[in-house]
Design a protein that fits this description.
The protein has 289 residues and is mainly β. It has two domains: 141 residues, Sandwich (Jelly Rolls), CATH 2.60.120; 135 residues, Jelly Rolls. The chain is built from no helices and 22 strands.
Length: 289
């Protein structure tokens, strides 16, 4: 039984998409991987998450996974997406994760859907769901509606980091766009901090490290593979339940580095632009009590 305010749709089927034009988003499973979000009496926020094992049968083809939201029977709007690398090789699933935080209007119902496409036009086939079957790794869509307490920083820019020494963490966005300030809380409380980014390398053999910093202290990090191949994004996700102390304000930042010293370049954000797949940092403060 899921907690109040959380819905989830999940399928252990394996899905195929053949002959994608690289532009048109298509439902992965319109009947199963969709969620109805009922109207509420006051404005709220929904945290939407999609998770799937994505892979390709044809080399050089990446897989894009997107979350769409429609309001009051209107058209589907793309609210978040990530690209999963296929240049890395065929039959090599990536556990892609995409998260989006969206405001909800009072008195309005919504429908959330999970869609996909390839990154380029191809006669080949991409798939969602790994394993030998008949029950494959689940593809899921989750919606968590919260009244307040959720803050997010997101950017659709593409970021580059060149000549990282493999040790020194640096802000992904030098303008502090990927920063969230947490005011002092009246009591000790556990807060949930998560970050999501498409990470990739221009140079073979270089991995990308993504870290969450709280008041300049590293509290969580993940490493995204670059040995698998260049120009092959991984939809990296890092999360931590952080214990905040009463009467102490915090500043949360998203930083990165390479895993080893390199003269090359790593990047965050996939796609052809000018709007790249979002890099995001989200802080959820649950209601006290």
């Amino acid at each position: 039984m899921l907690p109040s305010g959380i819905q989830s749709a999940s399928s252990q089927a394996q899905y195929l998409l053949a002959g994608s034009d690289g532009t048109t988003w298509q439902d992965i499973d319109a009947a199963t991987l969709a969620l109805n979000i009922p109207s509420g009496p006051a404005p709220a926020t929904v945290v939407l998450s999609g998770n799937a094992d994505l892979w390709t049968e044809r080399p050089g083809v990446n897989q894009d996974i997107g979350i769409f939201l429609s309001a009051a029977g209107g058209g589907d709007q793309l609210v978040g997406w990530k690209e999963s690398g296929g240049n890395a090789g065929t039959f090599s699933p990536n556990a892609a994760f995409v998260q989006a935080v969206v405001p909800l209007a009072a008195g309005t119902s919504y429908i959330a859907k999970l869609k996909w496409k390839t990154n380029v036009s191809t006669p080949g086939t991409i798939r969602a769901g790994a394993g030998l079957g008949p029950e494959y790794s689940p593809t899921t869509l989750t919606a968590q509606v919260v009244a307040s307490g959720t803050s997010t920083a997101s950017s659709s820019s593409q970021y580059m980091l060149s000549r990282s020494d493999g040790t020194t963490w640096q802000d992904i966005d030098q303008t502090a766009a990927l920063t969230v300030a947490i005011p002092a809380l009246p009591a000790d409380q556990t807060i949930l901090i998560s970050a999501n980014a498409d990470l990739w390398t221009q140079n073979p053999g270089i991995n990308q490290d993504l870290g969450i910093f709280v008041n300049d202290q590293l509290v969580a990090w993940k490493e995204s593979g670059g040995f698998a191949g260049t120009f092959s994004p991984n939809a990296a996700f890092v999360q931590i339940a952080f214990r905040a102390v009463a009467d102490q304000p915090y500043v949360v930042r998203l930083e990165w580095k390479s895993n080893i010293p390199t003269a090359g370049t790593i990047r965050a954000g996939a796609g052809l632009g000018p709007q790249y797949s979002p890099t995001s940092l989200t802080v959820e403060i649950p209601p006290a009590g």
